[in-house]
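Tutorial handout. Part one gives the primary structure; part two gives the three-dimensional structure as tokens.
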Amino acid sequence: MPIDERKVQAVKPQAEVMTRQRLPYFIGISGKTVGARGIAMHVVVIPPGARAEPHLHVGYETGIYVIEGRVLTRWGEKLEHEVVSEAGDFLYVPPGVPHEAVNLSATEPARAVVARNDPEEQDKVEPYAAGN
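Part two.
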């Protein structure tokens, strides 16, 4: 972007978007919203008792900061590993690692900020069928 086109921009997400992971996102920073070239940043909401479809991210890292709730993340070839994140925790997901997120509350949503080093991250989310 030429120097005269660079500018600081505020984004206020207005509507949720259903993702390939089958979770609602509120789109923040991306290539489409602000012309980002190397980052995407959104808010994900996992409804009470809901889970993401197992998936992986092709070629980019993901950083997650949990704002509220408790989330179980299952990961690995057979989704055999688990980590629980709660408000105030960060979670790192390397490129190509199969995973799914599960809201551990049956009554309250879980919310998190998701940052990725790719401005068009939904184009590179692939469904994953866990091996037996």
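Part three, for discussion. The radius of gyration is 15 Å. The chain has a mean pLDDT of 90.
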